């Protein structure tokens, strides 16, 4: 591999035209981190589905395979394939085909199994999505669920682990889905703090990182976190260090949102915090 070669990632997410999430978060974060980033839109929405009603929704399932086939004809390759919000459960098989078509011995497949939060599915999802999402998790090198999505994937009651033992057990169970590395977000092992835990089955290593808890619910933080995590990994950070980068950056985004009095439903103020992310990636 050529030294200092610019890496290329593919972000497979919806386009929410208003609301900082999905492609409108993944593309600028990865690009700012020096990653050549292509996108595969799974749906187009006037806004994201959290905190808004009356939004428009266009499913792009029929476009996915032709786009991927064109890329294959061009001989394109990707250092990372990164999936997030999918337009429907029917898209799972299309994305699985894309993973098979573009997988190499060196690239990274990161699946953020976006399905819900706070114990409930997002408006356009159902139990069928969880059943199908397990297929993508089995193909991934790394999955990044929140506690709600972990419960759906494992067909368990929703529960936020509050001890290290509970967190370890949950992470181990998630690796049984097939991905050797799991990052679980929204974990609090200490009062007044919130963070993420990861387990790397390949080296049997557990790591937890947190930051001060900020009161409120901020739509889009999962996409911020996963995009920052991937940005650090593609800049050759270890999983442990990438976890720290993602937690610290996400926390700073939330701080800016609160300081500026912005409506949480429009997503965290990640633009103001991007210089901080670049500082973290220089360390």
From TrEMBL:
SUPFAM superfamilies in the record: Ribokinase-like
Origin: domain of life: Bacteria
Keyword field contains Kinase: yes
EC id: 2.7.1.35
UniProt keyword ATP-binding present: yes
GO cellular component term of the entry, any: cytosol
Keywords assigned by UniProt, alphabetized: ATP-binding, Kinase, Nucleotide-binding, Transferase
Domain Pyridoxamine kinase/Phosphomethylpyrimidine kinase positions: 76-263
Gene3D superfamilies membership: 3.40.1190.20
GO molecular function: ATP binding; pyridoxal kinase activity
One of the protein's GO biological processes: pyridoxal 5'-phosphate salvage
Enzyme class: transferase
PANTHER family: PYRIDOXAL KINASE
Protein name as catalogued: pyridoxal kinase
């Amino acid at each position: 591999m050529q030294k200092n070669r610019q890496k290329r990632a593919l972000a497979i997410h919806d386009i929410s035209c208003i609301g900082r999430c999905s492609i409108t978060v993944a593309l600028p974060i990865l690009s700012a981190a020096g990653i050549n980033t292509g996108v595969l839109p799974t749906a187009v929405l006037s806004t994201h589905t959290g905190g808004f009603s009356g939004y428009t929704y266009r499913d792009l399932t029929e476009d996915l395979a032709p786009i991927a086939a064109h890329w294959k004809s061009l001989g394109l390759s990707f250092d990372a394939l990164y999936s997030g919000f999918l337009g429907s459960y029917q898209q799972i098989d299309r994305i699985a085909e894309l993973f098979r078509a573009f997988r190499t011995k060196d690239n990274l497949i990161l699946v953020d199994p976006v399905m819900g939060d706070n114990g409930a599915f997002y408006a356009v999802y159902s139990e069928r999505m969880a059943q199908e999402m397990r297929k993508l998790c089995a193909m991934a090198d790394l999955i990044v669920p929140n506690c709600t999505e972990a419960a759906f994937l494992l067909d368990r009651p929703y529960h936020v682990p509050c001890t290290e033992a509970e967190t370890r057990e949950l992470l181990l169970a998630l690796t049984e889905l097939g991905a050797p590395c799991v990052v679980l977000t929204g974990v609090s092992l200490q009062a007044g703090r919130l963070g993420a835990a990861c387990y790397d089955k390949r080296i049997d290593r557990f790591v937890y990182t947190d930051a001060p808890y900020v009161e409120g619910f901020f739509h889009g933080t999962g996409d911020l976190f996963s995009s920052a995590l991937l940005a650090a990994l593609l800049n050759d950070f270890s999983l442990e260090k990438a976890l720290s980068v993602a937690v610290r950056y996400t926390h700073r985004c939330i701080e800016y949102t609160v300081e500026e009095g912005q409506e949480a439903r429009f997503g965290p103020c990640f633009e103001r915090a991007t210089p901080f992310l670049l500082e973290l990636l220089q360390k």
